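Hi all, long-time lurker, first post. I run a small reading group and we've been trying to get comfortable going from sequence to structure in the token notation. Rather than ask abstract questions, I figured I'd post a concrete chain and ask someone more experienced to write out its structure so we can walk through it together at our next meeting. Sequence below, copied exactly:
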Amino acid sequence: MPLQIPESLKNAHDGLHAGLKRAMREDGRTGETARKIMQIMDGHMLREEKFALRPLGLLRELGRGETPADLAEAMHLAQGLKSEMAQMVGEHRQIAELLRELARDAEAAGKPDYVQLAEDLILHAQLEEDVLYPAALLVGEYAARVRKL
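-- Answer (accepted) --
Happy to help. Here is the structure in token form:
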């Protein structure tokens, strides 16, 4: 069975994605800005789920001291994350700029739910850079060391 994204992360991503899809259906600048964000986020999320989130599916087993069968796959995915990291972080910067614009547009339109969505997405991107991406890289490093033994 291929590596699976932890359910909690998958649910968080799906919820944020659904919120942005709702914002895209709005008229005016709110919807326009949300559509610009989604143009970047679609490809970004595919790479992120593949390279950064799937290796995290091994954390529970690794935390229990087990040696998962999928370590080689996690190692390769983490190598992919290393090569994609600069682009992914750059996309986070572009997305964050547009999210700040979305928050301003939504505030002006009296749509506080989308202001909150923008703030949540900015915080989530920071979580990814501070915790999730480094954790995925550590899983890959661990897998590489275990393979050398």
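A couple of things your group might point at:
The chain has a mean pLDDT of 95.
The helical segments are 7-24, 28-53, 59-63, 71-108, 112-148.
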